[in-house]
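[step 3/7] inverse_fold.run input=structure_tokens len=93
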């Protein structure tokens, strides 16, 4: 396809496309905990943390409770439950 016909995928469209593809990944983690963080939310939270250039996991964990950050994670990155030290992503028996 010639370069003139290629459509650039940028910004919100790229994040939406990534979110759609991540949602297709089957979660094979062996636990059925109530409140378990979905694989989609874990991956998209990691993408948001890198995309927003957080200097550390701790800073991301602290900021996730701020209303503006929560709104951005939900609307831009399609994250419903943000992983944190308080909510395990994966727990063994």
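[step 3/7] decode complete -> sequence:
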């Amino acid at each position: 396809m010639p370069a003139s016909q290629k459509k650039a995928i940028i910004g919100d469209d790229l994040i939406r496309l990534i979110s759609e593809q991540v949602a297709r990944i089957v979660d094979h983690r062996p636990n059925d905990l109530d409140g378990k963080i979905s694989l989609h939310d874990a991956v998209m939270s990691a993408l948001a943390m890198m995309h927003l250039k957080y200097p550390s996991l701790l800073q991301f964990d602290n900021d996730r409770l701020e209303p503006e950050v929560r709104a951005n994670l939900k609307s831009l990155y399609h994250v419903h439950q943000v992983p944190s030290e308080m909510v395990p992503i994966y727990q063994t028996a």
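[step 4/7] annotate
The mean pLDDT is 82.
The first helix runs from residue 11 to 23.
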